[in-house]
Write a structure and sequence with these properties.
This protein is an alpha+beta fold. It is built from seven helices and ten strands. α5 runs antiparallel to α6 (241-248). The chain is globular and about 65 Å long.
Length: 284
């Protein structure tokens, strides 16, 4: 049974080239976020070339960023930390819905020039949540993504780190006015995902990190076969018969519960998790 997705088709071989840089005429340069006003041409695979067209491209000295899922286990459930954030750009929306600029987010921040992603994640964890960790404590949550490729070439890296809530200190913050009086809260991971489903949480990078963390519980590399409580956590349930059977059995799902044709769990309805599915058994 194949576990991987079907391959993506190849992208068309279209190349973009800058034919004129008009950034000197743009008004948004020399700040935290610069706008480069450029004229491009597109070279198509049939040998033709487009007429020049203008496109504004964002740029920052610190271009790439990190998001950190700081988690802990309580009562056999995974919990994550969120922090209140102020985003001025949201207050400038001229269309419905209007926003006051406040969001709940996982800690995140820019990678400084010369800094590696894991080191940036450890620094941001201390600044925004108050936890001390080393770069080696940071576990990658999948590969990086382009969060806003239409306007900036920023890469976003995702990390998870296991923290002790009792060891949290006041966040050091980074000196920004936007971080003053920030509030830190912890929620069950399943509740965070449910808030995104209902639209009560809105930050896209936080949703992706939360869903990647939830998926990570289903991957064998996350915890050892003897970690019974964590096997139950990977199911995200309160201990249904199926999950407890798998937890106390050998590594991997019990063959008695798998369909010989599809490889999927035959007793998924017995799982009491919020998604009514067992991540480790069903792989759905």
């Amino acid at each position: 049974m194949s576990c991987g997705p079907l391959p993506l088709p190849s992208l068309p071989d279209i190349r973009l080239s800058v034919v004129r840089d008009r950034s000197a005429d743009a008004s948004a340069t020399g700040g935290f976020f610069d706008v480069h006003r450029l004229d491009f041409v597109a070279s198509y695979q049939d040998g033709t070339v487009s007429e020049p067209f203008d496109h504004d491209v964002g740029h920052r000295k610190a271009l790439d960023a990190v998001t950190i899922a700081a988690y802990f286990v309580k009562d056999d459930r995974c919990h994550v930390f969120l922090r209140s954030c102020l985003r001025p750009a949201l207050t400038r929306r001229h269309a419905h819905p209007h926003q006051d600029g406040g969001l709940w987010e996982m800690p995140a921040g820019l990678i400084e020039p010369g800094e590696d992603p894991a080191s940036a994640a450890a620094r941001e964890l201390k600044e925004e949540l108050g936890f001390s960790a080393t770069p080696n404590n940071m576990r990658p949550l999948g590969d990086w993504t382009f969060p806003a490729p239409a306007i900036i070439g920023e890469r976003l890296f995702f990390f998870a780190v296991n923290v002790d809530p009792q060891a949290r200190q006041p966040p050091t913050e980074d000196g920004s006015f936007l971080e003053r009086h920030g509030v830190v809260a912890s929620l069950r991971l399943t509740d965070v995902v449910e808030h995104f489903r209902r639209g009560t949480l809105r930050d896209a990078k936080t949703e992706l990190a939360a869903r990647r963390l939830m998926d990570a519980w289903a991957d064998a590399w996350w915890c050892g076969p003897s970690a019974t409580a964590e096997w139950r956590l990977r199911c995200q349930c309160s201990g249904c018969t199926l999950c407890l059977t798998v937890a106390t059995g050998p590594v991997g799902p019990s063959p008695a519960y798998l369909s010989p044709t599809t490889g999927r769990c035959l007793r998924v309805a017995t799982c009491s998790g919020p998604d009514i599915r067992c991540y480790e058994c069903c792989k759905v």
